[in-house]
Amino acid sequence: MISWDNTYVDEFIYILGLYGIILAFSTQMGIKHGSSHDKIIHSPLQIIILYASVFIVSNKHILSLYAIILYYFVKYMCSLFDMYNKVSSTTDTGDSYATL
């Protein structure tokens, strides 16, 4: 029976993290990815790759988890803020009398 030692799991996470780093650099360099590749990356696998990329830097599982939670929290809050600003800028504020 195979014993899953932490070193095997950590090495697998390192490989996924390195893939995430390569993906980020290739995107920044303008290398195009196929549509199938984009569908895979924008799936729940995205969270795993981000976690693995953070794990390469921190080498601690719990800190990697905290960083990913913080990332998605800030991303969610920013998108809510942007959505609120778009809605409030397109609605009538009632200041139409000031232009008369």
How is this structure best summarized?
This protein is mainly α. It is built from 4 helices and no strands.
Descriptive report:
The protein is mostly helical. The chain has one domain (6-87). The chain is built from 4 helices and no strands. α1 (6-28) crosses α3 (45-58) and α3 packs across α4. It is extended and about 55 Å long. The model has no long low-confidence stretch (mean pLDDT 83).
Keyword list:
4 helices; mainly alpha; 100 residues; single chain
Please write out the topology.
Elements: H1 6-28, H2 35-41, H3 45-58, H4 61-90
Helix pairs in contact: 1-3, 3-4
Uncertain residue ranges:
none
When the domains are counted, the total is 1
- Kindly provide the radius of gyration, computed on alpha-carbon positions and rounded to a whole number of angstroms: 21 Å
Q: First CA to last CA: what distance?
A: 83 Å
Helix-strand string? HHHH
Strand content: under 5%
What is the count of β-strands? 0
